[in-house]
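Final report, Chapter 2: Outcomes

The project's central promise was a pipeline that accepts a single protein chain and returns its three-dimensional structure in a standardized token representation, suitable for archiving and comparison. That pipeline is now operational. To close this chapter, we reproduce one record exactly as it appears in the project archive, with the input sequence first and the structure output second.
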Amino acid sequence: MLTVAVLISGTGSNLRALLDAAADPAYPARIVVVGADREADGLEHAEAFGIPTFTVPYEAYPSREEWGRELDAQLRAWNPDLVVLSGLMRLLPASVVAAWSPRIVNTHPAYLPEFPGAHGVRDALTAGVTLTGASVIVVDDGVDSGPILAQERVSVLPGDDEHTLHDRIKPVERRLLIDVVRRVATGDLDLAATSVPRIR
């Protein structure tokens, strides 16, 4: 059984979907802890499922590196097989990435390498594209630049705004994340093979 730690910053909608999936006895992974960089609303999802939580407030530390050291210590206390970033709105320090790579994955609301960064949905709309998407990647030292594990296109519809487009991307993101975690758990996806080619 694959053990998973999830890190969030906000409402935790992807977390909730993963918790629901993991509640099925047939699902081959279990969430053992949920952490956040602030008092995130999404922690309530973990508490509803009886999953332990921790908070490492970013603003409480004088540097990103020191914040990262405490985050790493909290993760090591649970020693998960996989770390999932689910809406964590912080770049992890290189030391944390090095400690957990390649066993750390992230979701992104765009068809990477298109529109990396914190505003993928907004950037797609600004660019005027007709297609964007959702991706799940291995976290590396860059900004949404790690090997792509899964992705799917989503159409941009006439009249879309950031809210409506993101609402259509989110279910795709959740489905991809649940499937990637399942494939890691069953051995169908080997994260150690970090030469996973980028899907263009």
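Archive annotation: The longest strand covers residues 29-36.
This record, like all others produced under the grant, will remain available to the consortium after the project formally closes.
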